[in-house]
Amino acid sequence: SPSSPCSVLPLLSGVTAHSFTTSRQELVLLRVGHGSDEARPVQRGDQLLLLPGPHRPQPQRGVEYEYRAVEWNDTDYEKINPIKYVPALQDGDILVSDSLAIILYLEDKYPQHLLLPQDLKRKALNLQIASIVCSSIQPLQCYAVIGLIKGKLGPDESLQIVHHYIDKGFRAIEKLLEGCDSKFATGDEVQLADVFLAPQIHAGVTRFDIDMSKYPHLERFYKAYMEIPAFQAARPENQPDAPSPPQ
Amino acid sequence: MASAEAPAARPILYSYWRSSCSHRVRIALNLKGIDYEYRAVNLLKGEQSDPEFMKLNPMKFVPALVDGDAVIGDSYAIALYLEDKYPQRPLLPQDLKKKALNIQIASIVCSGIQPLHNLTLVRFIEQKVGTGESIPWVQQQIDRGFTAVENMIKGCAGKFAMGDEVQLADVFLAPQIFAAVTRYQTDMSNYPTLARLHGQYMTHPAFEAALPDRQPDAPSSG
């Protein structure tokens, strides 16, 4: 049967999601509601979508999945993911949370579109860039956002923290990629580093007023990411739970 | 042709005795039986900002590993590199579910706990939010992460976090628990499985040799 587009079920409290009985893999992606005030920022959830590459020779099916939005006060979610962060992925009877763990799981489970190269040095570079984003930028950014929401930090202080950590991380990544003239971070194919960079740059640009001209490689990659359907489809504003734009 | 090639140089680990991120890599190297050269980077003296070190890791963090022509910063990237390059004594199981659990636990430590109590942020909180504010903050981060990990391993822990063999989760947990106990006065009675693991780690040779006060740059006592 023809592949159907990724289908989305709205989350209705008290109603369990309808499970598919077709032979295709059913994956459920849980993400926090967009704009909820206790929510951890959703950037990581943006990464976990269709694997990329309109430039690849085979027809791009990607990995189809079901999207389930998670509200910030969803008490059932804690049973699914004890640390209560999003995203989480349910694949059959396996539940994986944490974006890096999910992506490395997908890497093993769906080896037809690998995000990590075989070469150990380039693989390590991808992991290092991913780690800079997910350990050294995003958690501190999250701290600053939540601090502001909870009134522990003023708006200027909050933004100062965000800028400090984004700048430190982005400058380090620029240094690691010095002399890089490939289309994407570690080559001419999208790889793990790009999957982590795209949402972080996107957040920087759309939420935190980051001047990307200071980071010429990253700026160039970001423009390239904007052209890729898989990345476009993953953007926050294109998610089922994104608030509709004001009239 | 010439006789046997010269033996490959040992990997070099740039480390600070007290850095819990460096501690993780020391454990991994010991578990795999890898002989390495230890080069101290004195964080208190700001040696992480030396131009030569910044070439190795522009984030100015320890650890960094130099292995032949590979230069790798970040404990996570280093651990997974070692796993590929030195497959003896694997730290990750084949089973995808267990593998994912190991990675999740490592992520909770290295993204969810440790960055939120590192010195720069703690100093910032003390200055900007208020003196003494950093202590409940750190305790809260540790509590959230430890509670989550405790729940995740309750069902599968054996002698170690994932069963009776040491795995990647242990490599990341041991330094975090050690820091929580020795530096942040964490009450481990709330996390009985983690408390028990801490006891195991303190008597396992590979973990013992990696302890901060066993390192060449640890201040000597007395």
TrEMBL record, chain A:
Residues 1-114 form the GST N-terminal domain. Pfam families: GST_C, GST_N_3. InterPro entries: Glutathione-S-Trfase_C-like, Glutathione-S-Trfase_C_sf, Glutathione_S-Trfase, Glutathione_S-Trfase_N, GST_C, GST_Zeta, GST_Zeta_C, Thioredoxin-like_sf. GO terms for molecular function: glutathione transferase activity; maleylacetoacetate isomerase activity. Gene3D superfamilies: 1.20.1050.10, Glutaredoxin. Residues 119-244 form the GST C-terminal domain. GO terms for cellular component: cytoplasm. One of its GO terms (biological process) is L-phenylalanine catabolic process. PANTHER family: GLUTATHIONE TRANSFERASE (PTHR42673:SF9), MALEYLACETOACETATE ISOMERASE (PTHR42673). Belongs to the GST superfamily. Zeta family. This is Glutathione transferase. The lineage of its organism: Eukaryota, Viridiplantae, Streptophyta, Embryophyta, Tracheophyta.
TrEMBL record, chain B:
Its EC number is 2.5.1.18. It catalyses: RX + glutathione = an S-substituted glutathione + a halide anion + H(+). The keyword Transferase applies. InterPro entries: Glutathione-S-Trfase_C-like (IPR010987), Glutathione-S-Trfase_C_sf (IPR036282), Glutathione_S-Trfase (IPR040079), Glutathione_S-Trfase_N (IPR004045), GST_Zeta (IPR005955), GST_Zeta_C (IPR034330), GST_Zeta_N (IPR034333), Thioredoxin-like_sf (IPR036249). Keywords: Transferase. Residues 9-90 form the GST N-terminal domain. Residues 95-220 form the GST C-terminal domain. One of its GO terms (molecular function) is glutathione transferase activity. GO terms for biological process: glutathione metabolic process; L-phenylalanine catabolic process; toxin catabolic process. The keyword DNA repair does not apply. SUPFAM superfamilies: GST C-terminal domain-like (SSF47616), Thioredoxin-like (SSF52833). GO terms for cellular component: cytoplasm. CDD domains: GST_C_Zeta (cd03191), GST_N_Zeta (cd03042). Belongs to the GST superfamily. Zeta family. This is glutathione transferase. It comes from Triticum aestivum.
